Amino acid sequence: MRQKNALIPTLRNVGEAEMISHQLLLRGGFIRQLAAGIYTYLPLGYRVLHKVENIVREEMDRIGAQELLLPALHPAELWQESGRFTNYGPELVKLKDRHDRDFVMGPTHEEVITDLLRGEINTYKKLPMSLYQIQTKFRDEKRPRSGLLRGREFVMKDAYSFHADRESLDETYQDMYQAYTNIFTRLGLDFRAVEADAGAIGGKGTHEFMVLSDAGEDSIAMCEACDYAANIEMAEVTGPEEAADKTPVAAMEKVSTPGKGSIGEVAEYLNLPAEQLVKSILFVADGVPVLVLVRGDHEVNDVKVKNLLDASVCELADEETVRRITGAPAGFVGPVRLKEKVKIIADQAVMQLNEMVVGANEADVHLIHVQAGRDFEVDQVADLRNIQAGDACPRCGATIYFKRGIEVGHVFKLGTRYSEAMNARFLDPNGKEQPFIMGCYGIGISRAVAAIVEQHHDENGIIWPVAVAPFSVHLITVNTKNEDQARMAEWLYEELKKAGIEVLFDDRAERAGVKFKDADLLGMPVRIVVGAKAGEGLVEIKLRRTGESKELSPQDVLKELPEWLKRADSK
């Protein structure tokens, strides 16, 4: 493609863009923002998007998944069947047609694919079956400010598998897991598969594929010794090995703590360590209030709470609910004398405290010398807190540390979550009706593009891996008015095209400095520069990643180019 006529509007400044990928994709003319979280893919960006899509297609096809295309606009009745019309949350884009019928702009397609298969497949003889699509999705994100990493409109590959038994689901899950590993390896990403929560999708058994990056929104707990890795939402905290100390302590006593509602304020006021205090946090799970207890130096994990309670919706209680149930404002709530009003669940670390400080369910008052079992009872003890750096690995006992990650893929074992709700059934070998057993597998295509840039850039611009680069070669004429340079560059351009090499030809009448800055910004893996030595029959070939360069004749460039492209991804 000739750059003189190409739509590649490079920029020097991009305003408020925070993420490196957002900045560089805007500066390089790969994307343009139409509205918050909504982007146009310009020709270079669209080429990258297609490269990613094609890699995904190849790996999906390799494991026998069939591509189809489902509607983006869904009748609300399907989402009401599954229960997600109300439970999915405010990210679900809802609208009405001219007849006042409710519709949904699809953020994902479990309902639609289940509806399709319940009408088309009625026997185990057609199972297992895996189907996938690559399509635009819609989610009304609250803060769509990270470029392609968090958009309200985005491109996603979503796949769904249908099975007659769990063993078949396990086999396909492993096939998909390996396909995802192949995909992200081919995209040139440094990633980890981590244990994760299924969230609004539902189901049990799930892994996220996380690209390791400081720009990531997710915290990943990783083990220094083994391959354990988990999203912080799901990272297990091992229980104590020793029994709790239950030595008798002084009688429970009220103390005044005027205006001291936070753990830090109470700890400082009473001159006690935060780990001797207990946070009492009121949740509402499917409309039922539940009091959750965690140690003062720990953070409650609301996903663990939700999963323990097997709740569809689990949220922090608002201030009015807290006061109505406990009689006190948040910050002064405690478990004493609340058991008749609410279910009380405690993190395992709380139950190791011999005595503790808790809220007194009165404004500006706490209780000291409180002992579990003597002064209050709990209904259930479980792992309810976030894992912390320095905690023991739940697999091998070594030390946990943290990395940031960008989620680019997610694989789920849905089980019968949707088939039961939507009455999607087949006949088994005995002629009995059984619900489909399902799996779900997603990849953020546009998000992967941004993740690639986050990992592959330097201070000058993007450094595309060969597999996804818009063009393999950037051919630059330093001076288009010089006959030797112009003639040699034109010859090389035609020969590269004949050889099947994707080449961007900078034939613009611009200064050399502008061309080289743009080439660094755009980040094609190999650069061929036709400059001052064209009259001597030499051009320069250069790797964008390492800066390695060599002067060769145009003929030798064509011979050696395959080897240079192989080395282009090496660091």
Automatic annotation (TrEMBL):
Gene3D superfamilies: Anticodon-binding domain, Bira Bifunctional Protein, Domain 2. One of its GO terms (biological process) is prolyl-tRNA aminoacylation. GO terms for cellular component: cytosol. Keywords: Aminoacyl-tRNA synthetase, ATP-binding, Cytoplasm, Ligase, Nucleotide-binding, Protein biosynthesis. One of its GO terms (molecular function) is transferase activity. Its main location: cytoplasm. It catalyses: tRNA(Pro) + L-proline + ATP = L-prolyl-tRNA(Pro) + AMP + diphosphate. Homodimer. Catalyzes the attachment of proline to tRNA(Pro) in a two-step reaction: proline is first activated by ATP to form Pro-AMP and then transferred to the acceptor end of tRNA(Pro). As ProRS can inadvertently accommodate and process non-cognate amino acids such as alanine and cysteine, to avoid such errors it has two additional distinct editing activities against alanine. One activity is designated as 'pretransfer' editing and involves the tRNA(Pro)-independent hydrolysis of activated Ala-AMP. Consists of three domains: the N-terminal catalytic domain, the editing domain and the C-terminal anticodon-binding domain. This is Proline--tRNA ligase. The gene is proS.
